[in-house]
Design a protein that fits this description.
The complex is a heterodimer.
Chain A lengths: L5 E11 L4 E10 L3 E5 L6 H8 L7 E6 L2 E2 L11 E4 L11 H9 L7 H10 L13 H12 L6 E5 L7 H14 L6 E6 L2 H7 L2 E6 L2 E7 H7 L1 E5 L12 E7 L2 E6 L2 H7 L4 E4 L2 H12 L1
Parallel strand pairs in A: 3-8, 3-9, 6-7, 7-8
Antiparallel strand pairs in A: 1-2, 1-4, 4-5, 9-10, 11-13, 11-14, 12-13
Chain B lengths: L1 H10 L1 H27 L1 H12 L5 H23 L3 H10 L1 H6 L5 H33 L5 H29 L4 H19 L1 H13 L6 H4 L1 H8 L1 H26 L4
Helix pairs in contact in B: 1-7, 2-3, 2-4, 2-7, 4-7, 4-8, 7-8, 7-13, 8-9, 8-13
The chains are: A alpha/beta, B mainly alpha.
């Protein structure tokens, strides 16, 4: 059997800001997959991405990209990485043409033709200053740049946040096209779980600087379930299965971490498939 | 790295447009000034100054003329070479994140910023050298050699200032560029005063304490030094650049997100 190659690997990575700590974060992103990095705002997604890219210095732990440890001498690894941040980062006076001039003198594999094709494909005017772009256009510009140097890995921090559903859908289609190539991988951070549900193969869920859940998306969805019952039936459900429970006047909704066990143990209760959002909210509220 | 230098120069694009107007203005004014000091009202004013002030000699009047001309000459270099705008623009755009995600090491990112300084000082110096060639051919106020000495000193001082701006910007981080500017200027002024303390003291005592007025011997000394010792400023500029680069790199690698 062919061994699964991890494009990104974090082992016990820690970063302490005093008021916030990324605590012993470990996870891996296999090659050829789309990994959804989910968590609420302030959970530590951006910090983790910044650590992966070496934008900030980690306190401890190991990070590898394409099997090589990330340190100050491995900037060449970024030749193969396209990055999309939550904010554009390019100067507002810059046009697509300016960015092309800058990038072709930075990336060895910069493909001018692909870049201008991408601009065209995303309906971005090459001569217009990007300061005049809408949020969606700014994000598309970053994606156009990320896709124009033949990157094998895309790391994106909340690229769909604040965008309308049509643009979000367009972006998801772009990501889908990117991962058609077998060695192309995406790490996509978002708190919009519906986007990830559409595209992600793997899911890493972070909360309060700690990894709460990680693994194959379908397995996670398969494993979790929402049990609906009457209020007085709540006590019958085993504590070890409950991730979180919410009681209202109409009854109780319980997020359980073992769907099959719940189905066997409580045949009389309504057991429904949990969505990523419900799982995320369940874990966050369960911790509280 | 080349791409980052291009980006830095793009950040100064607006400044470079202003620079073009400044050059045009300086060229016209300098030529008018030189012609006037030779044939026009400024020449008459020089004669009047000699008649009215017994302390002044012909050399002093000529030096005063040179000083005004030097002021004009300094404008192109000073106007082109302010690195502060690059830091302000990068901070505003959040470019440090983008630059950190590029396949360029911290060493090269820092080096590109320093190379931008030299490119800018170079542009200013070239413009000034051309202007010096023109002016020295139509006036005897200053020789081309003296002009050149002043240009080298001025470009060196500017590159010292820019190197310090980079260092302070790295230390203080984005959003505090104005402080970096003030600290850089203070560092240069204090260094000058400390190194040339005796010369500054004697000029100050003579003019303000003893109220002896203008004495050409003391007064022109620091300016003569600036004109004749361009190579000293150049060496200091190189040393400051190396020091600032090394320290900025050391801090940036530990702090991250500052360049």
């Amino acid at each position: 059997m062919e061994e699964v190659k991890n494009v990104i690997e974090l082992k016990n990575v820690t970063k302490d800001y005093g008021d916030f700590k990324l605590d012993n974060v470990s996870f891996a992103v296999p090659e050829g997959t789309v990994c959804g990095f989910i968590g609420q705002n302030g959970a530590g997604k951006t910090t983790t991405i910044n650590l992966i890219l070496d934008v900030i210095r980690r306190d401890s732990g190991d990070i590898t990209l394409f099997g090589e440890p990330v340190n100050k001498d491995t900037s060449y690894l970024r030749e193969d990485i396209g990055v999309v941040f939550d904010e554009m980062g390019f100067h507002e006076f810059m046009t697509g043409r300016d960015i092309n001039i800058m990038m072709k003198n930075i990336y060895k594999n910069w493909d001018e033709e692909v870049f201008f094709d991408n601009l065209k494909k995303f309906s971005l005017p090459a001569k217009k200053k990007c300061g005049a772009f809408s949020r969606g256009m700014r994000m598309k510009l970053q994606i156009a740049v990320a896709l124009s140097h033949h990157a094998r890995l895309l790391i994106m921090d909340e690229p769909t946040s604040g965008l309308d559903p049509i643009v979000r859908n367009e972006m998801i289609n772009i990501f889908r096209e990117f991962v058609v190539e077998v060695d192309h991988t995406i790490l996509l951070s978002s708190h919009i779980t519906s986007d990830l549900e559409k595209i992600a193969d793997e899911v890493v869920f972070i909360d309060g600087g700690k990894i709460v859940l990680s693994g194959n998306k379908d397995e996670i969805l398969e494993k979790h379930a929402v049990v609906k019952c009457k209020k007085d039936e709540l006590s019958k459900v085993s504590e070890s299965l409950i991730v979180n429970s919410e009681v209202s006047d109409y009854g109780a909704e319980i997020l359980v971490n073992d769907r099959h066990a719940a189905e066997n143990l409580y045949p009389g209760m309504v057991i429904e498939r949990a969505e990523l959002e419900q799982i995320m909210i369940g874990y966050v509220n369960g911790k509280r | 790295m080349k791409g980052l230098i291009i980006k830095d120069i793009m950040c100064l694009k607006k400044q470079l447009t202003t620079f073009a107007y400044i050059i045009a203005g300086v060229v016209v004014i300098s030529i008018l000034y030189v012609l006037s000091s030779r044939f026009g009202n400024l020449a008459k004013a020089g004669v009047a100054l000699l008649d009215e002030n017994n302390n002044m000699s012909q050399v002093d009047v000529k030096n005063l003329g040179s000083m005004v001309l030097v002021m004009f000459m300094l404008i192109p270099i000073v106007s082109v070479g302010d690195m502060l705008n690059v830091f302000i623009a990068d901070g505003k755009a959040g470019f440090f994140k983008v630059s950190a995600s590029l396949p360029v090491s911290m060493k090269k990112r820092m080096l590109s910023r320093f190379l931008t300084i030299y490119a800018l000082c170079g542009i200013g110096a070239v413009v000034d050298i051309i202007l010096a060639l023109v002016l020295s051919s139509i006036t005897d106020i200053m020789s081309f050699g003296s002009f050149l000495g002043i240009i080298i000193s001025c470009a060196s001082v500017l590159s010292i200032y820019s190197a310090l701006v980079i260092l302070y910007c790295v230390i203080l981080g984005y959003g505090k560029e104005q402080y970096a500017q003030v600290f850089s200027l203070l560092t240069i002024i204090l260094s000058f005063v400390i190194i040339k303390f005796s010369a500054f003291k004697s000029v100050f005592i003579q003019i303000f304490i003893k109220e002896q007025g203008f004495d050409s011997g003391t007064f022109w000394k620091p300016l003569d030094y600036f004109r004749d010792k361009g190579y000293v400023f150049l060496i200091v500029a190189l040393l400051v650049s190396v020091f600032s680069y090394s320290l900025s790199l050391y801090i940036a690698e530990r702090k991250r997100g500052v360049i």
